[in-house]
Amino acid sequence: MYPPRLSPHAPLSYRSRAIDVASVVAGSGSYLPEKVLSNDDLAKFVDTNDAWVRKRTGIARRHIAADDQVTSDLAIAAARRALESAGMTAAELDLVICATATPDETFPATATRVQAALGMERGAAFDVQAVCSGFVYALSVADAMLKSGQARCALVIGAEIFSRILDWEDRGTCVLFGDGAGAIILRGEAAAEGDAPRGILASHIFSDGRHHDALYVDGGPASTQTAGHLRMDGREVFRHAVVRMAEAMEAALETAGLTAENVDWMVPHQANLRIIEALAKRLDFPMERVVVTLQDHANTSAASIPLALDSAVRDGRIKQNDVVLMQAMGGGFTWGAALLRW
Ligand code: UT7
Hints:
- The chain is an alpha/beta fold and 342 residues long.
- It has two domains: 21-190, Peroxisomal Thiolase, Chain A, domain 1 (3-Layer(aba) Sandwich); 199-341, Peroxisomal Thiolase, Chain A, domain 1, CATH 3.40.47.10.
- It has eleven helices and 13 strands.
- The chain has helices at 12-20, 39-43, 50-57, 71-86, 110-117, 134-147, 171-174, 234-256, 273-282, 294-297, 304-314; strands at 21-31, 35-38, 61-64, 95-99, 124-128, 153-161, 179-190, 199-207, 215-217, 230-232, 265-268, 323-330, 334-341.
- The strands form four sheets. The protein has a five-stranded mixed beta sheet, sandwiched between helices. A four-stranded mixed beta sheet has the order 8-13-12-11, sandwiched between helices. Strands 2-3 form a two-stranded antiparallel sheet.
- α4 crosses α5 (110-117).
- Oxa(dethia)-CoA binds at residues 48, 52-53, 56-57, 132, 171-172, 175-176, 234-235, 237-238, 241, 271-272, 275, 299, 329-330.
């Protein structure tokens, strides 16, 4: 149901704003580290080859952060570009949410680094950790905060340096991931009258912690006091990915009262081309209207959707008023979908 059903006990300010405010995109930006590692480069030190990686995943290359870069560096660069595209200054922001599973430090949140670097002296900044679903989770949280009146203008970032948590001897995982960051700015605006509201139209997030062992990192401050390495049962994740993401995107469409025919662009999490093609097929959605950056970025976890969004905005594909469907799935398992009118 949209607007969301509210408890009769909700404070009045929440109830009225939830109906009146839309979370509208004001700008987007992204950043990719300079260094590019091709499949052939990888084959020099791990037992793999370009043909296998392309055929099984669709990936051709990935960007890798420089030794002296941390996740907040990538996030800050993406954030600055998003502010520039929105024609805004950081003084207008009062919320920073950074989706990341590879924070600079265990604490404080990477988002607070971004807040400080942008010169923000007010508002709230925190990280959201839902691995590859992180950006959809962060959008959902930002949307709820804007609609409840807890914030007026949110910077929502997905930023990752997965190269730091990969086991570079495990060919089943190290060929799949890359580094990068993407960001969008959402502004709380009075919802437009009529039947084509802009902004976030629906978001649905889910998790099922019973699937921990299929995709996890074997370290952490409370378990091993090390950062650990990513471990994945690829086939098991693959088996769940299409079904879970399809459920989420169908829920988002239903909530917004739309069908696949109303969607202009699908911007899915970029993990595997075969998964993306299966999702498009499920909705009978043409691949020409699916944004695919996987070949150049690989899987950048929480950064993959905002990176893909920004590339399609900058090359002129996504335009104002286009309806964009995003869906993701990651460790946890976590999964979700969001629908917005750009
Ligand atoms: O973002 C979070 C969500 N993550 C995902 O969505 C990932 C989902 N899973 C996948 O994308 C796929 O399962 C993978 C790409 C990870 C693997 O593809 P697959 O078709 O499931 O391959 P597989 O793991 O079943 O392996 C097939 C064969 C194996 O050899 P044998 O046992 O058949 O002889 C592997 O050892 O391919 C071998 N293999 C490789 N060969 C060359 C595995 N990795 C590689 C490699 N290069 N990098």
